Amino acid sequence: MSSEVTILHADLDAFYASVEQRDDPRLRGRPVIVGGGVVLACSYEAKARGVRSAMGGRQARRLCPDALVVPPRMAAYTAASRAVFEIFRHTTPLVEGLSIDEAFLDVGGLRRLAGAPTAVAAALRERVRREVGLPITVGVARTKFLAKVASGVAKPDGLLMVEPERELAFLHPLPVERLWGVGPVTAARLRERGIRTVGQVARLDEPALVSLLGGGAGRHLHALAHNRDPRAVQVGRRRSSMGAQHALGRGPHSPADLDAVLAGLVDRVTGRMRAARRTGRTVTLRLRFADYTRATRSHTLDEPTAQTGPLRAAAGDLLRAALPLIAERGVTLLGVSVGNLGSGHTQLTLPFAAEPGPALDAAVDAVRDRFGSRALTRGVLLGRDPGVEMPRLPD
DNA sequence: TCTGGGGTCCTAGGACCC
DNA sequence: TCTGGGGTCCTAGGACCC
Which residue numbers mark the site Substrate discrimination (predicted)? Predict the structure, then answer.
């Protein structure tokens, strides 16, 4: 783990709502809600009145009757996101996107070129504001985790650096919900034990946390509470699944209706897959029932594909097999996603001959570091020229 | 808090392989 | 013949994130 502060977490504020306020002056300074049935995003003026994203539209309007409700414009948000990520990548090549509106940037190599990380962060904020017209908050710290927590604390439209010598003083008073990976269930489990702050978590030993929360979450939380986070900023991560879903209302819905909805969903997903030049093998049918329980059913094809036909057929089989369950509980949401994306089709061009030896071994290690071991489970194609496929690496 | 649409990662059992 | 150890893949569920 680096002992220097090099990591930025940049996070656009109330992203969808800020784009709407940017594009329509009448919305500026006023409570804005994006999305009708459910709040997709809301401006800080609406947040001040208690409106939260994922809240039901009725409740949101009750809390804030004078809110201006606008329908989402996904194309505008995608365009704004692209413009902001261009600025990120112009700042440093080491950019790891987390979602449409946030990313980690490693600016460690820039000290001589562009100045200290806080100066880089301030310039970045200024540029996003000037060129894209959006407010953005940046957290600056020695680790990804601390940078993310810092941006959360600094929101909205802020900049906060956590100096190495005050990391624990910054971290320990925070409520556990601030920790990345602590949601309602984990927070409730901790609260039952009287644990509310990160400092209290840090006083528990790892076995106690593991028995309380399970192996993965327990070890994760123990590390974070002790400020251990060795993860590097990863460049070039690709989506591993693509999906689409649709809420149906309480029904009833005939099998033919469901099949028609399913066909539309598969069409949408495969269209996006082809546009992104991705293929996939695992089709997952997602169901939500009238009692808000959920189920998934999945099937893995022998060959990856982006064609509508085979994926549609597999999804149809899954739906037919789930009809008894649907008849029993009543379906309210249907979703399709395709996973196992792209493996076997990844091609990396490396600047050396792909012959066995120390150079190749080192390159494979570098690939593992950058993309994770999963990138190699189906073999990575190495080539000297784009478009030229080299033999598979041995496993 | 009564619920949209898009994702990630982890766990666990069973099948199957050497 | 009824038995080890190690590994991958598939399926299903669950927690979490924006």
Answer: 16
Residue A42 · residue A51 · CB < 8 Å:
yes
Could you tell me the distance in Å between the CA of residue A374 and the C1' of nucleotide B16? 20
Strand partners, A347: A381
Question: Which of A6, A41, A73 represents a domain boundary (last residue)?
Answer: A73
**What's the token pair of residue A361?**
């071994």
Known binding-site residues of A for Mg(2+) equal 11, 101
Position A70 confidence tier, pLDDT thresholds 50, 70, 90: very high
Q: Look up the domain containing A43 and give its range.
A: 15-73
Indicate yes or no: pTM above 0.90.
no
Residue nearest to nucleotide B2 (CA to C1'): A56
The answer to whether residues A206 and A277 belong to one domain is no
Digit-coded pLDDT (tens) for A109-127: 877 777 899 999 999 999 9
In this structure, the answer to whether residues A176 and A275 fall within a common structural domain is no
Rounded to 10°, the helix A74-91/A117-131 angle is: 140
**Active-site residue (options: A4, A20, A102, A177):** A102
Residue nearest to nucleotide B10 (CA to C1'): A216
